[in-house]
């Protein structure tokens, strides 16, 4: 039952702070999406979890045990790469079997598991094909199957759908989610596509400049973002600047001057004269002649 | 905005003759006929100067066979000699792969100062002329002044087959390292990382994923090393003693005036080379990767730090003891020669030095000519092959043909070429040597340029075209700047290979002596010189070649390795 | 005068038919979006327009002049490849000035044009930077500026936003559109993202396997798609296989594996096999009987997908078929997985297609 704990992890490359004091807990069987603009550190984070990179400071624990001294190959984590990384010199079947082969799994067990995987990703008829003969979506499915075959329960997905057409992405993400549920996997899925994250995540982690800005359920993040950055980054929104003109502490409301109009909103603990920004989602705006 | 964006035809104020010339060339390149003629010149040159003389020469040789007379003893000796060439070549190339790949790995994966130093050091044997290398290795392993001193004996490895192997190991080693460093640099490490996330230890990942994927590169490196070993003449003669491999046999036969033997032997060498290379090229890629067998525990141990450290130390030690030190050993006697005052005599041109300096002048003049000719004629062909302008089938054919001068051992090729150019009759010896050198070195430049042009994304040229750039402008402003490094290193490769050349030269030259040929005579004692003079002569040759290495390294530093696009 | 016209243009690569008898006409000043999956021939189409490829059959007209043999340099159409193809060894300014210089302008003029164009895309401050020092979005703008500065009248953009983060795409696509409109150019924008095509295109062209599947203004293609493939690619829908049971005036009753769906009759013959499609946003969910809906069915909510601005519900109907419903602007959904609900949609929102000869799943294949 892999759960994951990240304690104050930082990673610097010379002067660049790729990660600054990142802490996160991921429950067993949870599907967490990490989103953020390019360079926010999301890829660096999962590379540290997988052991591909070593954090400069902080600790990472899987099931309560620190993995600092554990090599990549011993962490038992399934990893799916953005550029897919199927072994070009092996067939689909051999790719799927690789993780088992390196463990010296007996031949008939390997065959059973590989067949199971082929069925799971619905590619029984392409077992003898080479990666170059497959479409992007098919290749990615094989990559996922290859990781699942090792029996890993903790999965790290680095922009797994990034190389695919928009429409294929929109379909494949649900297949991915279903697979994770069916197999009871704990997943950390990195993406720059916030719609992808909202539609399949149990929880969403928002990162910027190496830090975690916010964590929450998709609906919370979307409807009640805690920061301006989140409000603007997740979905589209209208941002209006204004100033507090009056506060009513008894009613916990404030009046805000925006674009020459006055608006009453149930927000409190503000001072008169304070500058604020209001965010209104487009779908909440009505037009009338 | 309108006038900013309108693409009206401008009127140009040419400010200098150069600008006018460039514009003229540019406008000329707009016509498809101009471009076609440039390519035609390149292709014709390739065919007329490189391919046809080689093939025609070989064919002419074959036709002369019936009239040749050989006795059984010579025939026997010939068979043995040619077989030994292949035994030596295949053994040495395999050993080079085993020894060179770990070093290349070390250079690429272990970043930092040591790696860069190793990188530069690994180039040294490449740049040292093989004659000098031969002499150096002779001194190092065979003479009382060499490593034998440490053991109190007269010589550790006497001249003969083992010494030849040590020589060939040393000069093919840098080829392997260069090629494999390039392969490792271009390799996507993600594959290896993926293998490790699936549970493979680093040794297993490299063995089962990286090396199979890099198989084409390994094969290319192996074949290049093999070609070099089969070709090498001058240095092999120096270290062979009384032993005979293919090239030594032919050389000896030539000196004895046994023309029949020369012709037959070189023919056999050529044909067997072609067969062996084609066989390897066809069979090796098809070898099925056997179903994965892994011994996890054992391979884990191999991945641990102590084992890795042992491996690294062993690689570096082998490199130092068997490659670098023997190469550099030449420096000692040369320095002593300078100290003893022989140097001033040498510079003044007294005695044997007169011939030496005229040989050096000859060698370098030829090298410069050959380099220029190669660049001018090789560029069009490189573009044609890189951009697949011929269509796939013909490009593959041209590709294979370009390799011909490398596969065929240069001495044997020289024999064929003298057959061909001999028929032409009145071509002066100087030009025959130039043409022979051009043929031998042609592939180096074209290969280097082709690979580099292929790395320039075609999209860059597409975008430039639609922005209104004519072909000459695209070449001048886009392709050339982005392949500058390859152009220079290709040119230097050609230059040093030409200066180095002993095989074909010894076959075609009758009276003229290039520097390495002269030095072979000095070393073998055909021309009597003192040991100091010998060392100094070799030293001068090495020094000039080192200059080339320094230039190359300086250029490399100014162009940090960048990925285009 | 249309800047580009194709008449029956075909392009082959060996045995592969990349572009198959395509005829099209692009109006002056139009922003045309070409939408299609990978491998549908979009890039080939652009390259044919640019003159980087020559057609095997058919005629291409640029500004009504036969252009089959006019080289890429002379077509006044600039091609912006997918990864921008900025010249890595030249600065931003030199990149942008490349076009004017290539067309023979003196250096000072070319640099002035380049500076002005950089101002237009708001990158004057990075004029001396090298391409690899810029972010993806900035590189995109430099590529655009380079095209604009060359004086070309036709801009050919090959998936200009596919290398850019999803969030940035939303802003950038409109910025590109605005710059193009301001400059008075005609643009062909190739993409595989239907949201993008829908939101910026004046006209849309849908490609599959080198053939045009549909073309027209986005609204029209959305409301009246020409085929099942287009419906699926452009907007998505729920599909039902059925047979026409009965026609009553303007209405056809289609029997779909146990359900009876009211659809517009549109010259359908009895017992002909059909495929019906309903857009997700046209399907309503409710607990109680909705007023004035022609088609109402019982179903169970199997899945709810939160997409931010909307919720998407997947409902299983009594006959086992699935139908999707998309509702916007709900802060809290009143529905839960497992709820029994009523699914409803109007007759007019039902799209009717002939049953495809290769079968429904083949027709719906996008990848």
Describe this structure as you would to a colleague.
The complex is a heterotrimer of chains A (289), B (565) and C (367). With 289 residues, chain A is α/β, with parallel strands linked by helices. Chain A has 8 helices and 14 strands. Chain A has a 6-stranded mixed β-sheet with strand order 6-7-8-3-9-10, sandwiched between helices. Chain A has a 4-stranded antiparallel β-sheet with strand order 2-1-4-5, covered by helices on one side. In chain A, a hairpin with a 2-residue loop joins strand 4 and strand 5. In chain A, 44% of the residues are buried. The mean pLDDT of chain A is 90. Chain B is mostly helical and 565 residues long. The N terminus and C terminus of chain B are likely disordered. With 367 residues, chain C is of the alpha+beta class. Chain C has 2 domains: 229 residues, Rossmann fold (3-Layer(aba) Sandwich), CATH 3.40.50.300; 128 residues, Nucleic acid-binding proteins (OB fold (Dihydrolipoamide Acetyltransferase, E2P), Beta Barrel). Chain C is built from 9 helices and 20 strands. Chain C has a 6-stranded mixed β-sheet, sandwiched between helices. A 5-stranded antiparallel β-sheet of chain C has the order 13-12-11-14-20, with no helix packed on it. In chain C, a hairpin with a 2-residue loop joins strand 1 and strand 2. In chain C, helix 2 runs parallel beside helix 4. The radius of gyration of chain C is 24 Å and the shape is elongated. Chains in contact: A-B, A-C, B-C. Chains A and B meet through strand 6 and helix 2 of A and helix 9 and helix 10 of B.
């Amino acid at each position: 039952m892999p759960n994951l704990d990240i304690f104050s992890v930082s990673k610097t490359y010379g002067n660049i702070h790729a990660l600054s004091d990142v802490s996160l807990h991921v429950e067993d069987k949870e599907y967490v999406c990490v989103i953020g603009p390019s360079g926010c550190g999301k890829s660096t984070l999962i590379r540290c979890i997988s052991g591909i990179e070593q954090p400069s400071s902080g600790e990472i624990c899987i099931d309560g045990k620190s993995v600092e001294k554990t090599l990549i190959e011993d962490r038992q984590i399934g990893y799916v790469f953005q550029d897919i990384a199927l072994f070009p010199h092996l067939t689909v079947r051999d790719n799927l079997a690789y993780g088992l082969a390196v463990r010296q799994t007996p031949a008939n067990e390997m065959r059973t598991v590989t067949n199971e995987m082929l069925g799971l990703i619905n590619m029984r008829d392409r077992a003898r094909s080479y990666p170059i003969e497959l479409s992007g979506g098919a290749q990615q499915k094989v990559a996922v199957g290859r990781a699942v075959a090792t029996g890993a329960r903790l999965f790290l997905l680095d922009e797994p759908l990034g190389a695919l057409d928009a429409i294929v992405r929109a379909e494949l993400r649900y297949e991915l989610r279903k697979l994770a549920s069916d197999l009871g996997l704990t997943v950390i899925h990195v993406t720059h596509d916030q719609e992808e994250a909202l539609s399949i995540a149990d929880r969403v982690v928002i990162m910027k400049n190496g830090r975690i800005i916010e964590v929450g359920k998709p609906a919370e993040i979307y409807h009640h973002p805690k920061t301006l950055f989140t409000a603007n980054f997740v979905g589209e929104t209208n941002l209006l600047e204004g100033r507090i003109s009056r506060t009513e502490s008894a009613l916990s409301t404030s009046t805000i001057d925006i674009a020459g109009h006055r608006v009453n909103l149930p927000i409190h603990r503000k001072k008169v004269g304070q500058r604020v920004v209001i965010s209104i989602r487009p779908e909440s705006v009505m037009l009338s002649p | 905005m309108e006038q900013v964006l309108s693409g009206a035809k401008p009127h140009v104020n040419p400010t200098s003759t150069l600008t006018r010339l460039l514009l003229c060339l540019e406008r000329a390149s707009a016509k498809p006929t101009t471009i076609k003629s440039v390519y035609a010149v390149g292709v014709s040159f390739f065919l007329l100067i490189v391919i046809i003389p080689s093939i025609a020469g070989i064919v002419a040789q074959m036709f002369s066979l019936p009239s040749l007379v050989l006795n059984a003893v010579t025939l026997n000796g010939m068979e043995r000699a040619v077989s030994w060439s292949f035994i030596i070549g295949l053994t040495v190339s395999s050993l080079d792969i085993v020894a060179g790949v770990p070093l290349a790995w070390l250079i690429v994966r272990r970043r930092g100062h040591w790696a860069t130093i190793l990188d530069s050091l690994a180039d040294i044997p490449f740049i040292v002329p093989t004659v000098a290398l031969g002499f150096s290795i002779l001194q190092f392993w065979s003479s009382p002044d060499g490593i034998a001193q440490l053991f109190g004996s007269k010589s550790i490895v006497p001249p003969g087959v083992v010494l030849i192997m040590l020589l060939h190991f040393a000069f093919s080693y840098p080829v392997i390292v260069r090629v494999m460093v390039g392969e490792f640099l271009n390799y996507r490490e993600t594959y290896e990382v993926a293998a490790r996330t699936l549970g493979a230890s680093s040794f297993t990942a490299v063995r089962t994923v990286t090396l199979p994927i890099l198989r084409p590169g390994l094969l290319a490196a192996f074949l290049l090393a093999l070609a070099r070993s089969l070709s090498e003449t001058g240095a092999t003669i120096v270290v062979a003693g009384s032993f005979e491999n293919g090239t030594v046999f032919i050389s000896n036969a030539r000196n004895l005036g046994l023309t029949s033997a020369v012709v037959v032997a070189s023919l056999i060498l050529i044909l067997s080379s072609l067969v062996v290379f084609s066989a390897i090229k066809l069979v090796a890629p098809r070898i099925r990767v056997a179903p994965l067998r892994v011994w996890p525990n054992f391979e884990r141990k191999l991945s641990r730090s102590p084992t890795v450290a042992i491996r690294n130390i062993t690689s570096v030690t082998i490199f130092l003891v068997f490659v670098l030190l023997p190469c550099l050993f030449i420096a000692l006697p040369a320095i002593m020669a300078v100290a003893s005052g022989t140097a001033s005599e040498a510079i003044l041109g007294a005695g044997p030095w007169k011939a030496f300096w005229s040989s050096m002048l000859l060698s370098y003049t030829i090298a410069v000519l050959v380099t220029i000719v190669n660049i001018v004629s090789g560029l069009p062909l490189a573009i044609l092959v890189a951009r697949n302008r011929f269509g796939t089938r013909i490009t593959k054919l041209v590709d294979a043909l370009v390799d011909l001068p490398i596969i065929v051992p240069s001495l044997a090729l020289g024999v064929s070429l003298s057959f061909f150019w001999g028929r032409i009759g009145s071509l002066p010896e100087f030009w025959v040597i130039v043409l022979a050198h051009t043929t031998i070195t042609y592939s180096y430049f074209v290969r280097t340029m082709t690979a580099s042009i292929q790395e320039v994304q075609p999209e860059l040229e597409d975008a430039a075209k639609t922005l209104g750039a004519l072909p000459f402008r695209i070449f001048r402003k886009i392709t050339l700047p982005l392949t500058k490094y390859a152009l220079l290193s290709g040119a230097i490769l050609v230059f040093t290979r030409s200066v180095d050349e002993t095989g074909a030269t010894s076959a075609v030259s009758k009276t003229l002596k290039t520097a390495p040929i002269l030095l072979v005579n000095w070393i073998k004692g055909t021309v009597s010189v003192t040991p100091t003079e010998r060392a100094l002569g070799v030293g001068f040759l090495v020094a000039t070649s080192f200059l080339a290495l320094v230039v190359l390294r300086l250029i490399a530093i100014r162009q940090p390795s960048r990925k285009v696009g | 005068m249309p800047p580009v016209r194709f008449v029956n243009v075909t392009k082959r690569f060996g045995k592969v038919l990349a572009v198959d008898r395509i005829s099209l006409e692009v109006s002056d000043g139009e922003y045309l979006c070409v939408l299609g999956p990978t491998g549908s021939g979009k890039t080939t189409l652009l390259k044919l327009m640019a003159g980087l490829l020559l057609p095997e059959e058919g005629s291409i007209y640029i500004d009504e002049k036969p252009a089959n043999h006019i080289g890429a340099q002379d077509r006044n159409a600039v091609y912006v490849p997918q990864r921008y193809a900025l010249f890595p060894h030249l600065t931003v300014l030199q990149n942008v000035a490349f076009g004017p210089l290539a067309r023979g302008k003196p250096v000072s003029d070319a640099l002035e044009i380049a500076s002005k164009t950089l101002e237009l895309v708001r990158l004057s401050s990075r004029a001396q930077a090298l391409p690899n020092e810029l972010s993806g979005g900035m590189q995109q703008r430099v590529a655009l500026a380079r095209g604009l500065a060359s004086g070309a009248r036709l801009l050919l953009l090959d998936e200009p936003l596919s290398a850019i983060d999803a969030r940035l795409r939303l802003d950038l696509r409109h910025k590109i559109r605005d710059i193009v409109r301001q400059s008075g150019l005609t643009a062909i924008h190739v993409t595989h993202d239907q949201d993008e095509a829908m939101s910026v295109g004046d006209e849309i062209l849908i490609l599959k396997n080198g053939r045009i599947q549909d073309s027209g203004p986005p609204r029209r293609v959305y409301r009246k798609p020409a085929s099942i493939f287009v419906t699926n690619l452009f907007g998505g829908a729920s599909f039902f296989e059925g047979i026409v049971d009965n026609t009553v005036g303007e209405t056809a009753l289609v029997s779909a594996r146990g359900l009876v769906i009211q659809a517009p009759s549109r010259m359908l013959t009895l017992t002909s096999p059909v495929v019906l499609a309903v857009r997700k946003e046209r399907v309503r969910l409710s607990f109680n009987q909705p007023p004035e809906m022609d088609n109402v069915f019982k179903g169970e909510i199997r899945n709810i997908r939160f997409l931010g601005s909307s919720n998407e519900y997947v409902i299983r109907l009594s006959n086992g078929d699935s139908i999707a419903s998309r509702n916007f602007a709900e802060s809290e959904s009143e529905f839960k997985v497992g709820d029994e609900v009523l699914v409803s949609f109007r007759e007019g929102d039902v799209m009717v297609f002939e049953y495809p000869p290769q079968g429904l799943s083949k027709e719906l294949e996008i990848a």
